[in-house]
Structure to design on (233 residues):
């Protein structure tokens, strides 16, 4: 079974500052992918960044980077230079393979989310 | 390229009725997944389809069903609606099953009275 834990129900950050959103996971799958999504108040889920469990480098996408620490089972999202438009709910998600051959996949499992508020 | 589209965007039904939600994936995507989002339970996986076959299924009662057509469009049906079925239903598409990124539609907000 997979489990994603986001321990911060809400976070506040000043505009132009960096913020880290925490995500820890638990899985016994041989390999897995980690995702972060943003959900503004409009409801649509927006894909931000992906990290594979065997990727050597931490993923980066513009102002987003993923601080992946495999031994600690954490996949924190770092947003640099926060903008007012970053205010939203952020979800960490994981999907693992069910077999060593990587041909069978489980479902995409989401954490409970963190509400980020960016202050001017 | 157009994103994932879902229809209708809003729906109001009464208990006992049934409802069908539709999802059109991004062109070229062959996998479609459905999720239910509620304030209390968060995002919960319903089912995933690829090439018209259900590949994964979540822990929902049999009242929830889905299907995928040959053009990859998908429909989700909920029969005998209950108050607790009120939720945002999100559809996501990806190139295939696996670690491919899922891209979400705007969702259908269902209210059951």
């Amino acid at each position: 079974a997979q489990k994603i834990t986001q321990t911060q129900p809400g976070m506040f950050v000043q505009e132009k500052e960096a913020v880290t959103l925490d995500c820890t996971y638990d899985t016994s799958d041989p390999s897995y992918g980690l995702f972060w999504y943003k959900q503004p108040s409009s409801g649509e889920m927006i894909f931000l960044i992906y990290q594979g469990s065997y990727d050597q480098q931490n993923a980066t996408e513009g102002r987003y980077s993923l601080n992946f620490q495999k031994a600690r089972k954490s996949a924190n999202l770092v947003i640099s230079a926060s903008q007012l438009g970053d205010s939203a709910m952020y979800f960490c998600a994981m999907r693992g393979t069910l077999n060593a051959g990587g041909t069978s996949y489980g479902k995409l499992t989401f954490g409970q989310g963190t509400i980020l508020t960016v202050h001017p | 390229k157009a994103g994932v589209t879902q229809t209708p965007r809003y729906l109001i039904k009464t208990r006992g009725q049934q409802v069908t939600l539709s999802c059109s994936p991004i062109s070229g995507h062959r996998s479609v997944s459905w999720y239910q989002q509620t304030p209390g339970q968060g995002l919960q996986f319903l089912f995933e389809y690829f090439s018209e076959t259900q590949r994964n299924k979540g822990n929902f009662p049999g009242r929830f069903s889905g299907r995928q057509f040959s053009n990859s469009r998908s429909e989700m049906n909920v029969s005998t609606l209950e108050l607790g079925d009120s939720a945002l239903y999100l559809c996501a598409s990806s190139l295939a099953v696996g670690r491919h990124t899922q891209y979400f539609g705007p969702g259908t907000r269902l209210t059951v009275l």
Q: What stands out?
A: Residues 20 and 77 of chain B are 4 Å apart (CA to CA). The two ends of chain B are 37 Å apart (CA to CA). The mean pLDDT of chain B is 94.
